[in-house]
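Example record used in the benchmark description.
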Amino acid sequence: MKKENVIIAGVAIIAIVLISLFYYLPQGSEFEKGTAEVIISLNFGAKILLKKEVNSGESALDALKSVANVSTSYGGSFVSGINGIYGDENKKIAWFYYINGMLANVGASKYVLHTGDVMRWDYHPWGNGLVTYGELADFPEPFRHGYGGKVRKTLILFDSEFENEAEKLRDYLGKFVSVELVKDGKINEYAKENDNLIVIGNNNSVAKELNEMHEKLGFYYYLKNGKVFDWNGKEYVGGFGELAQSPYNLKGNWACENSVLLIAGNGVYIGKVVDDILNGNTGEFWIFEGEEL
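Model output (structure tokens):
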């Protein structure tokens, strides 16, 4: 083999190795420097116990340990207690952790924080069958930072009467990510499966599908026959905002790849919910504006 060919072959091998390292290095590798945020809360975000910055590039578990006293079980892979507050299997209450609004699908020792990530540990019950796969308390996550350092495009689907609300959300999120408006919810299957979706209104087909799937999505509020109900069957007049992981993702609604935010309900309450979101009034996992009947 000629010397020139040997050099070319060697360079090609090095390039392949470097590309492989780029794609297969653990998340948060030495090339990434910065900070992330840790939040510890109770009862679906109703009470904040702690909010602190940590270094990115650490595992979610190590970052938590750097700001709190942590107890683990099952060989250190499961967080059973934080600052003296412990989960109880008999009472069906435990600590759950979310990355940028999405219930994480790997153990805390395996997820490595990226710069800008918001990690929330929330202590709440799970025995009533409600599994909350997404939380709105940390909006504009997950639209801004995604999961595992990967951010997807956001489509805002809206009924025609809510065009103003859709534009306000687009102008806000457009400062961070790619956003596109889609009137009357008319999108192709690829976009539906792969993009983040914000759905405003009750009448477009996607809004109807999400409300029908409310149990699967872990929605606390949902719309049925033009009426707003909660998980326990109580009826309301009002509007709500609920975040979940996308049920359209081909890997399932716990893939941690793309999310859906449904803003629906009765009349003017939808506009009030949008204003709450834009004004940062998202302290809990969901937003509701209205009153019980």
